Amino acid sequence: INAEYGAEEAKLNEVEAAESTTTQSVTRKFTKVETDRDKAIRLSSYQNIQQERQSESWVPCDYKPPEHPYSSGQKRAMINKKDKGVAGVEVSRSQYLDMFLPGITTQDFSSDRVLGLRDLPTLTHTKQKVETLMRNAKVLSFSEICQIISDIPKLELLTELQKCANLVQGHWVISSKLLYPKGSRSGLTGAPAELMIRHRDFILCCFVQSPLLKRKHLQSISKIHPTEIEEILKQVSRFTPREGWVFCKAPSAEFALQYPDVDQSQKTAWNEIYDDIYSTLHLKVHRNNPLVERKIEKQTISKELTSINIETATQIITRLQLEEIVDPFHLVELSNEFRELIGPCSALVEVVESSMCRYIPPEHCKQVLNEMCTELRLCYISVLTQDGEREQAIGYEKIGNLSDKYRRIIFSLFESRYQISKSELREAIHQQLQTHLTSKEYHAITTVLCDSPTAYKSGHWVLRVKRGPE
Fold first, then answer.
1. What DSSP string runs through 272-301?
2. Which residues fall within 8 angstroms of residue 95, CB to CB, at 6 or more apart?
3. What does the pLDDT read at residue 4?
4. How far are the Cα atoms of 58, 95, 199, 270 from residue 276, in angstroms, in the given order?
């Protein structure tokens, strides 16, 4: 029994050894789970379309040429007018049109949209007349409005105008909120009304500052399609080659002289729009941007730090021995002019000296300016230009705001380089003051003192220098 058992076990070992020597590797592939997106791509592919075409069965057709009797009979049957199986349709013209446009009626549109200038005499309410006129005309002077709507008193017209229009360059322009009602969308690109109002107000704000709007002023607009911007511009301006977009009417001061209170209230309203646009559109410091320039002009400058009194002026004149040439009151006036001329940033020395020639002989301007710099805490800045040359500028060390403790550091940075980056600015302040610059402080400094050499997305800054009276 043991011998038989041993023989069987030996045979099994030989079979296992033979099987182990003939073992082969097997590769198994798993089908990838097809998503809805992958399936849609596969079905729309050219290969799948070709396969479907090839798999379609041919449909046998019995073709009859035009000369065949059967074809002639079918043609006569289609054009036969004596067919009594078709009943005539007896409906009115309006009912017939409603059959093609069942969902659109005149009730779906507001009365303001369908009314034109010829309908003005039929309107009874002043509000309807003024809004209809401004919707159709877009831009009108107050005298033109009074001529068109002559049956209503001027004061009543003025009251309604302020509700539906804004004053731009002495003329009334239809309000953006009236042009783009809440909840509506643009007919060109489907942009929402809130976005269209914001960008139209941006363009109107630019025209309030200047009747000429250049293409580079629109670089901050990037949230609506260029066709929308062009459509807004065509409503209130005209394009002039090599210049830009010019406001459609010449600037006029006639209305401001007749109604100064209304003119002032409109300026106040525009100031509020300035602040809203500046924050919502996230405008950065950008060269030749009229809204940014407006924001910089609103920076407060302390009069106590940037002006001298009559006693200080007399001491300066006495030290320079110019009692018979210079009047002390002229120096006081000059200190106030410096505040407007230099502003929160800096200005070229030659520009400042040229403004002094009205009160002081040119040969004495330099020494008088040096004395005034000491009293007003003005510092000279040797600015490095893009061409590697030097320009002599002048700026306040302190103006009484958040940028005071960083001004001297920034001025010194631009004496050794034309432009600086954000990291270089932060590192220089950290090394000299042992403090980290917050985002609010960084924004306050760059808005006042710096300018972008090309566009606000470049990430580098140059020193903002006034090169002429504005």
1. HHHHHHHHHTT----TT-HHHHHHHHTS--
2. none
3. 60
4. 68, 50, 11, 10
What confidence score (pLDDT) does residue 107 get? Answer: 34
Beta strands, E only, 182-221? 212-213
| CA distance to 81, 205, 220, per residue, from 256 (Å) | 74, 18, 31
> Strand 390-396 relative to strand 378-384: parallel, antiparallel, unpaired?
antiparallel
Give the pLDDT confidence score for residue 216 in this predicted structure.
64
Element (H, E) at 173: strand 171-174
Query: Among candidates 455, 458, 459, 454, which has minimal Cα distance to 442?
Result: 459
3-class DSSP assignment, residue 246: strand
Which residue type occupies 9?
E
Which residues fall within 8 angstroms of residue 418, CB to CB, at 6 or more apart?
A: 384, 385, 386, 462
Tell which phi-psi region holds residue 370, choosing left (phi > 0), alpha (psi between -120 and 50) or beta. alpha
Tokens encoding 321: 């021995």
pLDDT at 282: 53
Residues 383 and 390 sit within 8 Å (Cβ to Cβ): yes
DSSP 391: E
Q: What pLDDT was estimated at residue 112?
A: 40
What pLDDT does 236 receive? 92
CB atoms within 10 A of CB 14: 10
Residue 402's pLDDT is: 74
3-class DSSP state of 465: strand
The 3-state DSSP class for residue 393 equals strand
pLDDT in tens, 196-221: 888 898 888 888 888 888 766 665 55
Positive or negative torsion for Cα 159, 163, 164, 170: positive
Tokens of 325: 């040439």
Residue 221, phi-psi category: left (phi > 0), alpha (psi -120 to 50), beta (remainder): beta
What local confidence, expressed as pLDDT, does residue 286 receive? Answer: 42
Give the residue from 368, 378, 365 showing the smallest Cα distance to 338.
378
Q: How many CB atoms lie within 10 A of CB 336?
A: 13
- Residue pointed to by tokens 């110019």: 322
Residue whose entry in the numeric block shows the structure tokens 């500052």: 209
Q: Helix, strand or coil for residue 470?
A: coil
**Stretches in the chain below the pLDDT threshold 70:** 1-7, 15-24, 80-91, 96-118, 215-223, 275, 278-300, 452-459, 469-470
